[in-house]
Amino acid sequence: MTACADPEGSVGGILCRAGQLLRAAAIDSPRLEARLLLGEAMGVDLAALLRDPRAPVPPGAATRFGAMLRRRLAHEPMGFILGRQGFWTLELEVSPDTLIPRADSEAVVEAALQGPAPVRVLDLGTGTGCLLLAVLSEHPGAFGVGVDLSPGAAALAARNAAATGLRDRCSFLAGSWAAALAGGFDLVLSNPPYIETAAIPGLMPEVAVHEPARALDGGPDGLDAYRLIVADLPRLLLPRGRAVLELGQGQGPAVAGLARAAGLVVLGTHADLGGVERALVLQQG
């Protein structure tokens, strides 16, 4: 490794050595991640962290940083190490009970916001509650229900609702999709499992090893969850109600075909920032 200019035990020295280790472990953005971890360990923001690279790091902070760095070098996701992740305009708690919210999923929110303001919103496979809470934050007159198979995920989503000031406008419950619910929703959201079972071991270890398999595995062709959700949408949606479903890359035509077979109208798709068709918009006829 290249020698670091700042003293060992200083902010700059620790960041330099940590960045080298993260780079060697094939971690993207190693310098940024080292800064985020050290800032978290020291309880300071990035501006304060970088103000004096030669400043010593207190022993307690150095110990905390070392523990977090070892976790990241083992490819544990940053979100799980920090315990939080930004999504839309919200900062959300995350845990191994759920997928970590991704910027790609904001395409679902953008697509949902392009339609009429909903009154009752349902989020199937809610995870952290990110989709539902983002939509509710933009529609102050709406009320939402989030459902997840994992009780831990439903509890986490409820904590996020409280932390974002939305607790009085939503409820979360553990269950199998919408089996326990009657209809009457203006808008249904979902980011279902859509990875083909055989493809999961080939994903980056942050996902394949650390994120919950039940939230990833979409069955042999990746469409198992879509079949269940789409078949239930005619019962769940009000007349002219809409559904916005997150898509895996290239899945748009197949999921649209399932929707048409169920009697739904396909309104179109919405791309993520990478130009990938990420959200499919459907309507009750």
From TrEMBL:
InterPro entries documented for this protein: DNA_methylase_N6_adenine_CS, HemK-like, N5-glutamine_MTase, PrmC_N, RF_methyltr_PrmC, SAM-dependent_MTases_sf, Small_mtfrase_dom
Binding site for S-adenosyl-L-methionine: G125, T126, G127, T128, G129, D148, W177, N191
Single GO BP term: methylation
Role according to the record: Methylates the class 1 translation termination release factors RF1/PrfA and RF2/PrfB on the glutamine residue of the universally conserved GGQ motif.
Annotated protein name in UniProt: Release factor glutamine methyltransferase
Amino acids binding substrate: N191, P192, P193, Y194
EC number: 2.1.1.297
UniProt entry keywords in alphabetical sequence: Methyltransferase, S-adenosyl-L-methionine, Transferase
Pfam families in the cross-refs: MTS (PF05175), PrmC_N (PF17827)
Domain Methyltransferase small: residue ranges: 117-200
Residue ranges of every copy of the Release factor glutamine methyltransferase N-terminal domain listed in the record: 17-83
